[in-house]
Specification:
8% of the residues are buried. It contains four helices and four strands, in the order αβαββααβ. The longest helix is centred in the middle third of the chain and has 16 residues, at 35-50. 36% of the residues lie in helices and 40% in strands. A hairpin with a 6-residue loop joins strand 2 and strand 3. With 120 residues, the chain is an alpha+beta fold.
């Protein structure tokens, strides 16, 4: 049985994405005392990023253990969409106001292989 046939048999809310989506996890440590400035900078750029071709969604998360640790997860229609945006000089200019409040950064990238959504 093919992967697509198996996906068709999956319960409602489950699907095999076959790597069509691309997820980026961007971990940051925000400088002491810069939490609000970082958050304001994110708010100023989030809807601009949302207009980038291929952008699906993103989330801003703050650690419950260490308020200096932040995570932005973003989902893209494909790796190509993300890499095109990342390679655009406008990208660095756009995110610079947010990045200036960080001390450490790490970017991890993944192909989405399966998604489970809870029906509401």
């Amino acid at each position: 049985m093919s992967t697509s046939e198996q996906a068709d048999l999956a319960p409602s809310g489950h699907r095999d994405d076959s790597g069509t989506r691309y997820r980026v996890l961007f971990f940051m440590r925000v400088e002491p005392g810069e939490q609000e400035a970082f958050r304001r900078a994110y708010e100023q750029i989030r809807w601009k990023v949302a207009e980038v071709p291929g952008h699906v969604r993103d989330q801003l998360c703050q650690s419950t253990r260490d308020p200096a640790e932040w995570l932005i997860t973003s989902e893209w229609a494909s790796e190509e969409h993300f890499l095109t945006w990342e390679g655009d000089p406008a990208h660095r200019r756009m995110v610079a106001p947010m990045i200036r409040h960080t001390a450490e950064r790490e970017s991890l990238r993944f192909a989405v292989r399966a998604t489970t959504e809870t029906p509401h």
